[in-house]
Structures are given as structure tokens and as C-alpha cells.
Amino acid sequence: xxxxxxxxxxxxxxxxxxxxxxxxxxxxxxxxxxxxxxxxxxxxxxxxxxxxxxxxxxxxxxxxxxxxxxxxxxxxxxxxxxxxxxxxxxxxxxxxxxxxxxxxxxxxxxxxxxxxxxxxxxxxxxxxxxxxxxxxxxxxxxxxxxxxxxxxxxxxxxxxxxxxxxxxxxxxxxxxxxxxxxxxxxxxxxxxxxxxxxxxxxxxxxxxxxxxxxxxxxxxxxxxxxxxxxxxxxxxxxxxxxxxxxxxxxxxxxxxxxxxxxxxxxxxxxxxxxxxxxxxxxxxxxxxxxxxxxxxxxxxxxxxxxxxxxxxxxxxxxxxxxxxxxxxxxxxxxxxxxxxxxxxxxxxxxxxxxxxxxxxxxxxxxxxxxxxxxxxxxxxxxxxxx
Length: 386
Ligand SMILES: *Cc1c(COP(=O)(O)O)cnc(C)c1O
Known about the structure:
Layout: E1 6-8, H1 17-23, H2 33-50, E2 55-60, H3 63-74, E3 80-85, H4 88-99, E4 103-108, H5 117-126, E5 132-136, E6 138-139, E7 144-145, H6 148-157, E8 161-165, E9 184-188, E10 199-204, H7 206-214, H8 224-231, H9 242-258, H10 260-280, E11 284-285, E12 296-300, H11 307-318, E13 320-324, E14 334-337, H12 344-360, H13 369-382
Parallel strand pairs: 1-13, 3-4, 3-5, 5-8, 8-9
Antiparallel strand pairs: 2-10, 6-7, 9-10, 11-12, 12-14, 13-14
Helix pairs in contact: 1-9, 2-9, 3-4, 5-6, 9-10, 10-12, 10-13, 11-12, 12-13
The chain binds pyridoxal-5'-phosphate (PLP).
């Protein structure tokens, strides 16, 4: 009997009971003072998580909607933009820019590798007319965490505008929007924020607003100015996903009760433990060492492992849901999400289930190697040694 699906995919993530309860509250008039207070609280809290005093808009959409809003509000048809991508989400952002008529210059990294700051600097100097640079903080498809501080600095030094997909990192990994002088940064509720899908966050710096003045791409629902104007009276131009906003409010409270430094440390630990456990079981990790994501870990199958059957067994027998590969790695790797309301015991449960599945598939004995490696990692880290 599976009592509850254990979501170990990189979003949506498991909901803490406090969040579920918060979302059961009755609807409020979304133009009234009571909801206005909720909205202000969420926006102020989200700004603390992004570490920014820039404008922050809350949009009712998935993360891709937040990214589309960013493109539509700073890019004009015919503009040159540089898209530095290292996986499927980088491709998606470049595709959005193309759909809005931009001439996209792509800097592509090999899958599993990060975006290289020196390569980016070179592309920017080769393309002086490219005003906006599209970047991915955490490339969920390849499980790569980019060095966003270095990349943002390159963009800044070249006097361009950074537009960053940080959907699967913010609230799990520090982004420091103001310190890194990031112009536009996007995240979404169903990742580390511990809330359901439905809300995207966009931070917008002054230089991005200046660009917005002249940007001519068509926009209406996602027109940032309409959102900013209504936010002054603590409202939104369209009916927001009220229940999801309640959930995000409670999620942010929980993040701040734990303390953001501890939240970041927990995610680093969960990543390290997952990497250690999978490696001990003989899996090859997909992302390059030194650039492995803190929110999702990807591994290649052991020789002879039928990935589809393996994932089905994990889901049906153990209730553990891990992600498929994406894009060209679909059916060729699996991804374990460890972001949001996840603790060390949850990672151990995944590894224990993987061991059981491998034994059942006659590939390896379930001798506790993976569990042991993950536990040791957590213990060493708790003693300050990891
Ligand atoms: C999840 C995710 C998105 C957004 O996906 P939606 O399904 O539109 O919410 C964008 N970029 C990255 C890196 C992601 O992980």
C-alpha cells in the first residue's frame, strides 16, 4: 500500500501540511484590503529571499509565464540577444525570445557542463549590439548549477542586461539579486518555495525598467507596467491564484523560520548526500563535478538497467517518484529532486528504495551501500566536516 506519493522530481515539490492548511482558507476579495495585506506580505518576503530591493511582481502563471513576461517586456522584435544555455530550459528561454522576434545568438555548452564566463565574455564582445543576455541559474534538465555571480558580473562589465531563469534555484540556493546586480530574475512557486504551481515571481531592476520604456514586443496580460501600477495599491491587474498565494505566504514563513542560511545549507547537504549515495551504488552522475545542482541530481543508468521499468518499480512499489531525463536525455537518465520540503530522511528513503529496486531487477544486492554513503555524508556535514 502506498499512502502518499513521495515526489522526488524537481517540481512540483511536496507540500508541508502547514501550507496545505493555509490554502484551505476561504477566498478573499482580491481587490480588498485583506488580500492586499497578504499580497504585500508575500512580495516583501519574496524580496528578502531574492535579496533585492528591486520591484518584484507576482504573476499568476507557471515559471515559463514569468520568463515570457520578461522577454515580452524588455525585448523588441529584431533585437539581438545572447542566449547562454546549457540544457533544455536554456533552449526554452531562447525559444521564447525567438517567438517574440529576437535575433538570438546562442552560446551552447555541452550537456552536463556549465556556461563558461570567459566564453560568455567573448560572445558579448563579438556581438556589441546584443543588449540582453539570457542565462540559466540552475539548469534542471542537466542538473547543473551555474556560477551565477561570475556570469552576472560578465554581463554587467559588458554593460548588458541580464535576464535570468532562476526558477529552480531561488529559495534553495542563494541568488543575491542586488549584490550580483541582476537586472531581471524569475522564479516560480512549485520549486523550493514549497507551494503548488501557479505563481511566478519576477524581479526588475532600474535598467530593465528603462529598457521596458522602449521595448515594443506585444504584451497585455504580462505587461509589467500594469502590474506595477496596481501593486502600488496592493493589488494585481487580473484575478490572482489566491489559494496559491496563501500557500506561498506560508512557505516563505517556513523558510524564514528555518533561516535562509540553514535552508541553503540543507539543500547543499541533500545534494551531497544524494550524490554520495548514487555514486556508491555505481551510478555515474551526469553533471560535471564542481557544478552539480543543489536542487536536483541526474544519473546515468547502470549497464543493463531498463530505466522505464526502474522508475515504474520505484513509483508503484515504493511510492517514490523520480524524474525522467529531458530533451535528448529523455529515457537515458533519471533525476532525483531534493528541493523544498525535503529532509535527510527523505533522501535516505530514495536511496533505500533504489537499492531494493536494483535487487529486485537482479542488478545489485540491496546491501545498504547507498544509504550508508548518504548517511555518512550527512553525519560528516553535521559535525562540520563535509
Ligand atoms: C521548472 C522550471 C521552469 C519553469 O517551468 P514551468 O513548468 O513553466 O513552471 C523554468 N526553468 C527551469 C530551470 C525550471 O526548472
